[in-house]
Amino acid sequence: MSEQYREMWKNLGLDLDAHDALLGVLGPLYAATFMTQKDRPAGMAYFDFVMSEVHGLRIKELMDAKAQGRKVVGAFCTFVPEEVVLALDGVLVGLCAGADFDTASAEKYLPRNTCSLIKGFFGFTLARVCPYLAASDVIVGENTCDGKKKAYEIYADLVPRLHVMDMPQTKNAAGRAVMKGAFAEFVAYMEDLTDRKLTVENLKKGIELTNNKRKAMHRLAKLRSANPAPISGLDALLANQVFFYDDPVRFTGSVNAICDELEGRIARGEGVAPKGAVRLVVSGCPMAVPNWKLPAIVEGSGAIIVGEESCVGDRGTRNLTADTGNTLDELLEAMVDRYMQIDCAVFTPNPSRVEHVISMVKELGAQGVIHYGLQFCSPYQIEAGPVEVRLEKEGIPTLRIDTDYSQEDVGQIKTRVEAFIERIKG
Ligand code: BJ8
For ligand 1, is residue 344 a contact (CB within 6 Å)? Predict the structure, then answer.
């Protein structure tokens, strides 16, 4: 891919040597993590292709879209409403934050005890290795956790255009009002950027495209309740990751094609793991590309992940936006209804999250939960305590893993995961 796209990367202002170094790690990591799996659905070839072209063809598509006057919006959080971006003919992309890169530079701006996700996007920005970031006409931040909201104050000086959405901390009337205000401001910002007006018609279209993506993911999520599991947790996570930057219509079609294939597998009683394999749900911080560390350890230890209670997973895709409103205000209210149901740990209190984890365990026939916390992520690491207590009370074995993006603790995590699997097997 490299030679063909070099000129494009250069024009985007990437540091070509550093970018080569990144791709030099990413390609082999992907091959070792994904291509060594057995009995993958044939439809995963699409995602293999997407990943092989993740800095190539998709970026070319974004550049073509920009040449046609469309705007590219980069985001770090599932609260950013894709409905609005699509309604105004924009393209929403998730930005690289799933790996360490140039941590030394990031730590010139941020304390060492900042979560890997935040340090990751600072590192990618400072090292000029993320073509999604470089292609973005605006980057949208959100006042969610303290780490992100303070980091965006600094980040504003590192990128050409940053829009920060204010986000609620409580799920009450006041919280709803904050979210509605933030969405209204975002609409005004996007109208100005795109020189287009949001209308009932184009917003309904944006809602439809976004809901279709979500519906395909709901279908995939449900099929994972089959035993034996028809798809690995790694491959399902990959689909959830690609959700954030692929073309919405093509993505929807590709996930539905995989679901058709999985239905056939289920009917034939085929799976990617033996019927007796321990089934787990992973709950906690989001795992952005190329963060495959924990699922690779878990599935490499013989268990199978059947669901992700995560923003790159069920928390991010569940619930649809109702499209029945007749006015922009009604549709905006419907968006607030939908997004207020996201059980991010920045909400206080956040009791619905653990209820969702319990319902996932039951519906997916899981036997345990691994709580995944990124080090220095106060919202999820602190919430992990009460979540664990509640799950254990429900008779659901729970393992708390706090880690970062480094590979140093792989052996230690593997030992703990293997012991957890043994505990479940009894
Ligand atoms: S809606 S989970 S995507 S904020 S890991 S940066 S919380 S210190 S990512 Fe998130 Fe939106 Fe919530 Fe989802 Fe802060 Fe924690 Fe770091 Fe985090």
Answer: yes
Q: Which of 81, 118, 147, 86 is nearest to 342 (CA)?
A: 81
pLDDT tier at 1, thresholds 50, 70, 90? low
Nearest CA to ligand 1 atom 15: 377
Please write down the long-range contacts of 106-113, taking CB distance under 8 Å and 24 or more positions apart.
109/154, 109/158, 110/151, 110/154, 113/375, 113/376
Please tell me the distance from the alpha carbon of residue 356 to that of residue 364, in angstroms, as a whole number. 12
Looking at residue 2, what is its pLDDT? 66
Residue 102 gets the label, from left (phi > 0), alpha (psi -120 to 50) or beta, of left
The number of angstroms, rounded, from the C-alpha of 100 to the middle of its chain's C-alpha atoms is: 17
Q: Measured from the CB, is residue 311 less than 6 Å from ligand 1?
A: yes
Pocket test for ligand 1, best of 112, 377, 381 (most atoms within 8 A of CB): 377
Mean pLDDT across the stretch 52-80? 97
With a cut of 60, say whether residue 308 has pLDDT above it. yes
pTM across the whole model: 0.97
Q: Is 292 in the pocket of ligand 1 (CB under 6 A)?
A: no
Cα distance between residue 121 and residue 138, in whole Å: 15
* Triad 213, 214, 215: Cα angle to 5°: 95
Q: Look over the chain and give the mean of its residue pLDDT values, rounded to a whole number.
A: 97
- Dihedral over Cα of 206, 210, 211, 212: its sign: positive
Query: If you compute the radius of gyration of the chain from its CA atoms, what whole number of angstroms results?
Result: 21
Do 317 and 240 contact (CB within 8 A), yes or no?
A: yes
Mean pLDDT on 224-230: 97
Pocket of ligand 1 contains residue 144 by CB under 6 Å: yes
Question: Ligand 1 in contact with 145 (CB < 6 A)?
Answer: yes
